[in-house]
Amino acid sequence: MGLRETKMERTRQFIAETAFDLFVAQGYDATTIEQIAAAAEVGPRTLYRYYATKEALVVSFVENGLDAAMAAFEAQPEGTPLSEALHAVVASVEHTITTNPARLLALYEIFDRTTSLRSGLADLDWSWRRRLAQEIMRRSGGETDSLFATLTAASTMNVIEVVVQTWTASGGTVPVGDITRATLELLRSRVIPIPAPTG
User: Could you give the domains of the chain?
Assistant: First the structure.
């Protein structure tokens, strides 16, 4: 990445960070694009070059968290058992939650009240699952088929979603690590039923 691209990415991230500080402080609906631009010390036209809508700013926070989780997976040395590499993904999400609890709680409150944002989140969810499935297949050196990789990626995302939703439902009062351990233990113990084949 060149100097210009690096500077643009820093500006993009700073705008998003500034926006979320305002969302937490005064609420999503009460925050205007003009207020975000002023706080980030950029003009509204500059802000629109990075984020076409206020909704895009919200989705970007989730995207950044998922990108960090993907980077954690990709950073695992080749030959690392898949279960350990996937645990790095979940650990990254835990880190995002514990680092930015107020922002995450504000984020899910916004999603609960904004239908259009839920649609954007669903698109991001599916895109990330595909990326993870592709990386699982790449790391397997051709020994993993598409169905296995797709189901593994979906299961990982399901764990992330259950952990985040359970944590936000508690208002952030339950330690996210406890929720993660309980979720993974339920899956490991096989007490969670799955559809059985018939015939």
Answer: 1-52 (1.10.10.60), 55-188 (1.10.357)
